[in-house]
């Protein structure tokens, strides 16, 4: 790392602004997806998918969280939510949000986490 | 219990809160692989004079980075750490972050203890289990844990501990104390 900022390639910023990918929308059916909701690819991808959608389908071949997906795609969470909302509406992915109680109210899982942390 | 048997991976959220510059990023980095997560904030009046909106008057959000780490306990069981945004203008994000969260770590700096009051209030009101980790900065007075408990007016069952967020073992102890506290909260409620 040099002291002077030098912006090349990705550091100079995206060629396509993130919200242009989703045609300027900031709202979609994916708004309510939790940051740790599980995304998985289902169904056959059509031929006319954009590169981001393809990337999502590849990344979600095995279950992946929304937050991990946003890091993987290097896109803001809101943009990923809009993309995922569309893709779910088209039957390309499934999104499972954790329930409010869910795993955190499961004693066995909490004990497993405690043991797992000790073993780190 | 059925959810455990399904093939859905289990994802748990832990929030890391506290005032600006108290060591949230350091704590997440000490115990997990830290990754830059970009998210949005709603622009409010507070942004006026800071965010130049000339020509984009309809712009209502801007992108901010959030501390994000993951600890893989085993295949299909992951703990996600999210650093809560430290400034008041990011408060709206907390509700989403804390929904379904396993618990929270509130990092306190005894030189400016008041900075963590909002976090403590927030988690108390929401009933989210939390622990207070007093980050022992170099040169800071080593206050006793009981002093901090009294100063923050904490319930007796809220764990307060001294830590050094730069050290992995110390960060680990804080996380374990939190999950143990969440477990106790759960079993006492049942």
Structural description of this entry:
The complex is a heterodimer of chains A (120) and B (190). In chain A, 38% of the residues lie in helices and 8% in strands. Chain A contains five helices and three strands; from the N terminus they run αβαβααβα. In chain A, strands 2-1-3 form a three-stranded antiparallel sheet. The radius of gyration of chain A is 18 Å and the shape is globular. The two termini of chain A are 31 Å apart. In chain B, helix 2 packs across helix 6 (168-189). The relative contact order of chain B is 0.18. At the A-B interface, helix 3 and helix 5 of A face strand 1, strand 2, strand 3, strand 4 and helix 6 of B.
Q: For the record, give the distance between the C-alpha atoms at the N and C termini of chain A, rounded to a whole number.
A: 31 Å
Strand segment count of chain A: 3
Which CATH C-level class of chain A is it?
A: Mainly Alpha
Instruction: Give the C-level CATH assignment of chain B.
Output: Alpha Beta
The CATH architecture name of chain B reads 3-Layer(aba) Sandwich
- E-strand count of chain B: 7
Biggest protein-protein contact in the assembly: A-B, 39 and 47 residues
Helix count of chain B equals 6
Protein name (chain B): ATP-binding protein
GO molecular function (chain B): ATP binding; GTP binding; hydrolase activity
Family (chain B): Belongs to the GPN-loop GTPase family.
InterPro entries (chain B): Gliding_Motility_GTPase, Gpn, P-loop_NTPase
């Amino acid at each position: 790392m040099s002291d002077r900022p030098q912006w090349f390639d990705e550091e100079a910023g995206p060629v396509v602004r993130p919200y242009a990918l989703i045609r300027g929308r900031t709202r979609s059916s994916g708004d309510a997806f939790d940051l740790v909701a599980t995304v998985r690819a289902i169904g056959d991808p059509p031929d006319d998918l954009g590169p981001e959608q393809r990337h999502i389908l590849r990344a979600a071949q095995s279950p992946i969280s929304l937050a991990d997906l946003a890091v993987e795609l290097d896109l803001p969470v809101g943009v990923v939510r809009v993309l995922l909302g569309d893709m779910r509406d088209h039957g390309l992915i499934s999104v499972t949000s954790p329930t409010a109680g869910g795993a955190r109210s499961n004693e066995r899982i909490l004990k497993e986490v405690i043991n797992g942390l000790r073993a780190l | 219990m059925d959810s455990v048997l399904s093939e859905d991976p289990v994802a748990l959220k832990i929030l890391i809160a506290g005032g600006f510059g108290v060591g949230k990023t350091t704590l997440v980095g000490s115990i997990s692989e830290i990754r830059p997560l970009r998210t949005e904030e709603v622009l409010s009046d507070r942004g006026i004079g800071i965010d130049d909106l000339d020509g984009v008057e309809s712009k209502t959000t801007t992108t901010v980075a959030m501390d994000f780490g993951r600890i893989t306990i085993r295949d299909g069981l992951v703990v996600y750490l999210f650093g809560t945004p430290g400034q008041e203008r990011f408060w709206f994000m907390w509700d989403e972050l804390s929904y379904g969260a396993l618990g929270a770590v509130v990092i306190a700096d005894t030189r400016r203890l008041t900075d963590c009051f909002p976090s403590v209030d927030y988690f108390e009101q929401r009933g989210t289990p939390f622990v207070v980790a007093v980050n022992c900065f170099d040169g800071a007075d080593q206050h006793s844990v009981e002093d901090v408990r009294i100063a923050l007016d904490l319930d007796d069952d809220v764990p307060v501990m001294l830590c050094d967020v730069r050290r992995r073992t110390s960060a680990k102890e804080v996380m374990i104390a939190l999950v143990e506290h969440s477990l106790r909260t759960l079993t006492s409620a049942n």
